[in-house]
Model the fold of this input.
Amino acid sequence: MSGETIVFFPEGAFGPTNNCIGIGEVLRRRGHRIVFVIEESFAGTLEEKGFEERLMRLAPAPEQEEEPGQFWKDFIRDTAPVFRKTTFEQLEEFMAPTWQALLDGARFVDDRLVEIFAELGPDAIVEDNVCAFPAIQASGRPWVRILSCNPLELRDPELPPPYSGLPLADPEEWPAFRAEYQRVIEGMHAEFSEFCVERGAPPLPEGELIHESKWLNLYLFPRELDYPRSVPLGPTWHNLESSVRTTDPPWSLPPELAGGDASLIYVSLGSLGSGDVPLMERLVQALADTPHRFVFSKGPQHDSYELADNMTGAEFLPQVSLLPHVDLVITHGGNNTTTECLHFGKPMVVLPIFWDQHDNAQRVHETGFGVRLPTYSFADRDLTAAIDRLLGDRALAQRLSQASRRLQASPGNERAADLIEQLAATAAA
Done:
């Protein structure tokens, strides 16, 4: 190989970053130069894995240095009450300010991205973000869009609106949700579209806050969960189904919980969900008296609550190394965790909090690969009954085993690397 320069630009969250790491590792092994554009808060984390880094900021630096993780602690403290509301109410109270913050970040960082792309002269740019960054298209370089969210974001009139968590079989509430979403974003859409044009990128598509690449577009959603589309996606779109990194360190169960026949259950509500201490304490209380063993991903507030005797956990856990060891997963329904559970054949109890987690939870529930429960109002008996039913469902275990074998036989990160490598070499997907 000639060793192309490929730049990855993931959103500053663990899901998109981990997805890009998995693909980048394959490309690096093939002899390509891989550079990650990351927020300053991630500095050093990609270098530890052997990649080059270029740092940027999405907002001015704070006057006083923050403690590690303080931003997310403050965010959860201020935002958790909104997570207890309906998805319709979240449009105005959570989605709108979050979109505005993301678009403000894209404006702030544009000059820095122009500088980075001019320095590196990449053969391809790979972005995994939810909003547009005009510098990518203005660079004139071939670029790849990765959608590592629920594919309802690729809108279809015969499918539920994204972020709604509404069922596929009942469209009654779809129009009202679509209209409210359009009302909420229309002003910021118009303003940001103008900014894109000013900075050398095309205007935004109607109702969208990100462009589709004319070269290559990738998404991740196992066939068993994917939606029956009435409007087929274009030829530049490819479904990786799952994309599981191989860079996580090994994991083994601590001796105090090893042995015995009790089922082993992994509890992970993501960086934000695990920062909601009352929610985590509620889960500990609900699960403490069950006959099962639990491994908790404790998150940024790991020292603010205690686990029960049938539990172990840590602030961070190597999820990909851990999943093969467990029997069931209690999750927030983030797209990476959802696809990784199918990849390893694990049933799910899904407690969604925001964004596409509601859609993933609903899709897992209606396809029978798990159970969706109301995150802040579940009854303890409903949670334990869901766990016991899923663990005892032999037909489901067989379906999951078949899905897992199929997904592992065709690794999505390898297929993504093939497509990106071809683009970087030929500028043609």
User: Anything to note?
Assistant: Residues 163 and 180 are 12 Å apart (CA to CA). The radius of gyration is 21 Å. The mean pLDDT is 92.
